[in-house]
Design a protein that fits this description.
The complex is a heterodimer of chains A (72) and B (342).
Chain A (H helix, E strand, L loop, with lengths): L5 H10 L12 H44 L1
Helix pairs in contact in A: 1-2
Chain B lengths: L4 H19 L5 E6 L2 E3 L3 E9 L9 E8 L2 E4 L2 E4 L4 E7 L10 E10 L3 E12 L38 H28 L2 H32 L8 H22 L3 H25 L24 H32 L2
Parallel strand pairs in B: 2-9
Antiparallel strand pairs in B: 1-3, 3-7, 4-5, 4-8, 6-7, 8-9
Chain lengths: 72, 342
């Protein structure tokens, strides 16, 4: 059985049409399928950092509220 | 939610700079020319390799070799070999201007879709003999076509790496902003002795240091591909390393003093010193000497020649996004420090 996770499916689906082209490498349009993978990966990593920051924001809000209530 | 609007803006602007910065194509350009040696008075065939070009889609393609501003020769015949390959035939005039022994020739291509592409010192013409084939030097031609579409400029050494401008430079600009905010809070702390100011100062300094490290790292990778070495001992690389080491000393100094009040005071003073060192190190010294880096050392100033209008549309949002993002991280660190009551 082949276990295909979503990322390898995405890479496979994007890169598959490239086998139909006969151009030599180097041109932007020829690599455009691969650049989408790069953009996607970088965006995913950035969104993960943002999610971490948002969670930390919420935890800080909760802690600050608790501290204010303790003081008052 | 509404008071956090700037955090959303930061995320959107950075995500936009990632998407637009990586996906907008480069303008057409010239990547290769062979042979690199030609002789005046001869008929020479130049094999030209293009990048993002559309040679087979245009009806009229023109090519010139330029030796100086008043000496051009147009290709007599152009054979299109594909979208990105051309063979141009030139009848090189004799003699070279000022009867020189050798001259560097710039290749200029022009067509309706690609506009004008230029490769300086594409080939070298050495002195030959007059012959019946040689034509006369021509004056500068009038070119009529601008390239179609929304593209980033094609620069001969940078090529696709020009996209790093949207990540490397905003990090440095954000670092400068954040360090400026940090020194303001350090000065405030020294005047009012309020602990919040010191916490804000150390939070912003931390984020600024992180941005400086990331900026150096992105610059090192960029230099590895364009300058040929990861660390070129270039003056800007050196001064930036010194500035970051000084800021690293700030953190070590802060931790090394046992008494907390004393530590806050001494580190606030050191922060002012560090920022005062930052300005000459990063801005003044590199401009006084030779450098590889754009914007200093005799190179054209950054943001005048290095950015064009298409790049500005991605660059300015990226700068704002990174400044806001850095502020978000700094504020969170400040809130954490306040809660820990240190």
């Amino acid at each position: 059985m082949i276990n295909i996770n979503s990322l390898s499916y995405l890479a496979f689906a994007v890169l598959l049409p490239q086998y139909g082209l006969a151009q030599a490498g180097g041109d932007f349009l020829q690599n455009i399928g691969k650049i989408y993978v790069v953009v996607g990966v970088i965006l995913i990593l950035f969104i993960l950092v943002v999610i971490y920051l948002v969670r930390m924001d919420r935890r800080l809000d909760k802690l600050e509220k608790k501290q204010n209530e303790k003081r008052n | 939610m509404l008071k956090n609007w700037w955090k959303f803006l930061a995320v959107i602007l950075i995500a936009y700079s990632i998407i637009a910065g990586l996906l907008i194509p480069l303008a057409p350009g010239i990547t290769g020319v062979t042979p690199s040696r030609m002789t005046s008075g001869n008929q020479e065939k130049l094999t030209i390799e293009g990048y993002n070009t559309h040679f087979s889609e245009v009806v009229q393609q023109r090519a010139w070799l330029k030796v100086d501003d008043t000496h051009f020769v147009q290709a007599g015949q152009i054979e299109v070999q594909g979208e990105k390959a051309l063979i141009a035939t030139f009848n090189i005039p004799h003699p070279l201007p000022n009867n020189a022994d050798v001259a560097a020739a710039t290749l200029i291509l022009e067509n309706k879709i690609d506009g004008i592409s230029v490769l300086p010192s594409a080939t070298f013409i050495s002195k030959g003999n007059p012959s019946a084939l040689s034509a006369n030097w021509q004056e500068a031609p009038t070119v009529q076509f601008q390239k179609a579409g929304f593209t980033f400029p094609f620069r001969n050494i940078l090529k696709e790496t020009i996209r790093n401008t949207f990540y490397h430079v905003p990090m440095w600009l954000a670092m400068m902003t954040v360090f400026m905010i940090a020194v303001v809070f350090s000065i405030k702390f020294l005047r009012n002795r309020m602990i919040e100011d010191d916490r804000l100062a150390v939070s912003f300094t931390s984020v600024g240091f992180l941005l400086g490290l990331m900026g150096t790292l992105t610059g090192v990778i960029w230099g590895g591909y364009t300058w040929g070495a990861f660390w070129s001992w270039d003056v800007r690389q050196n001064t930036v390393a010194i500035a970051l080491l000084i800021y690293a000393a700030y953190f070590i100094l802060r931790r090394s003093i046992a008494d907390l009040d004393n530590a806050r005071r001494v580190s606030a003073v050191f922060n002012i010193f560090s920022f005062a060192m930052l300005i000459p190190l990063i801005y003044i010294i590199p401009r006084m000497t030779e450098s590889l880096h754009p914007g200093v050392g005799g190179n054209p100033a950054f943001a005048v020649d290095d950015l064009d209008n298409t790049m500005r549309m991605v660059f300015y949002p990226a700068v704002i996004g990174w400044i806001l993002f850095a502020t978000w991280i700094a504020i969170n660190k400040y809130r954490l420090l306040s809660l820990e009551d240190v």
